[in-house]
Design goal:
Blueprint (H helix, E strand, L loop, with lengths): L7 H11 L3 H14 L6 H4 L2 H34 L6 H5 L5 H14 L6 E4 H7 L7 H13 L2 E5 L3 E2 L10 E6 L1
Antiparallel strand pairs: 1-4, 2-3, 2-4
Helix pairs in contact: 1-4
């Protein structure tokens, strides 16, 4: 279950995607530290300073990522002339996985300044993470995430729904329970 816990990189990716100001970022990090300790990886649960420093380290990376990506061809050229190998995907790929979606919606619902729910079409969710259909393994993984992050899915009208029964074009509404 360690992959479900929040790392500093996860928190930074979530906060950077919210495009907050400095004060709101600080409040968000503090709120996550105070309210989500059970969901933090063990190295941060008793060390607020390390948590904050690591989150800001990764936030800086995300904010500077476009500049770093522009510099990649020069780095690539230097590596090739010195007979070293480098995989472009290691440095230029975006941080995206399905677990991060569930981490993000939990934080967004609990600590964001907005709605107490997140809406998304199932088709959009699957497509964004590279899936075309729901396999049994994918459904099991999504259900584990829902259970771990204390999330429930409803459809319009507050009717409970399961990921197995939802149609691809149905708007899913996620709530924290």
């Amino acid at each position: 279950m360690r992959e479900f816990l929040y790392s500093a990189l996860d928190v930074a990716a979530i906060i950077s995607s919210m495009e907050l100001g400095c004060r709101d970022e600080n409040e968000m990090i503090d709120s996550i530290w105070n309210g989500e300790k059970a969901f933090l990886v063990s190295e941060y649960r008793n060390n607020k300073r390390k948590f904050i420093l690591d989150v800001y380290y990764w936030l800086q990376y995300f904010y500077e990522k476009p500049i770093l990506d522009q510099e990649f061809p020069a780095v690539w050229q230097d590596m090739m002339t010195s007979d070293n190998t480098i995989e472009p995907e290691q440095y230029m790929s975006d941080f995206s996985n399905l677990d991060l979606f569930f981490k993000k919606i939990r934080i967004q619902i609990l600590y964001g300044k907005g709605n107490d729910y997140v809406r998304v079409k199932l088709r959009t969710l699957l497509k964004h993470y590279g899936y075309k259909r729901r396999s049994q393994l994918l459904i099991q993984h999504i259900n584990r995430c829902l259970y771990f992050y204390h999330l429930e899915i409803t459809v319009r009208g507050g009717i409970p729904c399961s990921i197995e029964d939802a149609t691809l074009d149905q708007m899913l509404i996620f709530h924290v329970i």
